[in-house]
Amino acid sequence: MHIIPDEDPTTRRSPGASFSAPPSAKVLDSVQMAELERTFRAWATSSPRRDVRWSRQRILLTFLLIRHTGAKLNEVLELKFRDIDLEKRVVILAGDDKDKARTVEIPDDLAEELRTALKKTVHAPDDALFRIDPAHVRRKFYEQAEACGLPRDFGNPSTLRRSRSVELLRGNLPLPVVQRMLGHSTPNLTAAHLDISEEDVHHAARQYMDRESRRRTSARNIFFGKITEIVTGDIQSEVTLLTLGGLSVVAVITNASIRRMRLKIGMFVTADIKAPWVLVAGSDAAEQNSAENRLPATVVEVGTERVNTEILLRLTDGTEICSITTSRSSRRLKLRSGDQTWVLFGAYCVILNRE
Which pTM does this prediction carry? Predict the structure, then answer.
C-alpha cells in the first residue's frame, strides 16, 4: 500500500509545472496517476481465473482510456469497435452524436494494449467493446484508489478526467487543444481547472520567449526549420528541412517514424546532431566524401587534449557546431581559429524532433 504524504495532494505542484490546480480541485499529479495505474495492473492480473482476469482487464482498459484521453466514463463505455483506429492511434468519442464526436490521440503503448485485447475476440464494427455496468466500474475505481493509498473519491472517473486536463495543460499543450480533447464547449471550462497567478503568467511567457530566442540564435548542434521535402522509400524516408538561416539539412529516418511523428511538408522540426558524428574537412575537401550534409564553417576554437579534441565551428547563419575527433586527426588538419573549413555529417546521423 502506498502512503499519502502529510500535505494535501490537491495543492501539490510538480517541479516543472507552469500552473497549479486550485486548492478546491481534486487533482492527481502524474506520479499519483502512475501509482494508481500500477495498482490497477496488479489487480487485473492477480486472479487465477481466466474469465475474471478478462473482466478485470476491460475495467483496466476503461481506466487507461479515461486516464489518457480525459474522456467521460459513459463515452468510454459506449465505444464501438469502429471508434478505435489503432493505425492512427486515435479513438472517436461520442461517435453516435456527429455534432459532439471528437477524435482523441492515444499513446503508442495503449494502442498496442488495445490491439492485443481486441485480438481475443471477433468484433463487428458496431459492437460495443465495454458492456459494463457504470456503477460496477465506479466501485472498482474507488477500490483501487483506496488500495493505492488515495482517498476513495480520488478514484472517481471525473477526478481522473480533471487530472488529465491539468496534466496536459502543465505540459504546455495549448488550451484550445485540451478543450477539444475533453469536449468542453468553452475554454473557460478547461481553464477553470487551473489557478494562474501573475508569477505563473510571467514564467510561462519567459519560457516561450527563451525557446523562441534559441530558435533564432540556433543552439549548438541543433537546427530549427521547416520540412521542405519528403522522399519516401520502402523502409526509410529522406527528409529535408530549411533552417531559419537558409541552410538545408537532410535526414533519413524510418517510415514508421514518419507515421508516428506525423511528419509532413511545411511542419516545423528540430534536427539534432551529436558531436562525435560531426566530421571536419579542409576547405578544398568537401566534395570527396559521401556525406549528405556539407556546410561551410569557420573554426572558432580548438581544444586539444591527450586523446580527444573538441572543435567549435560557426556556420554561415551563426549556428555553432561542435565536433569531437581524435587529437591525432586534429593535428593532421592543423586547424586554427579563423580557418575556413567544412562541416560534414551523414543523413543517418540527424535526429529529428517534432516541435
Answer: 0.60
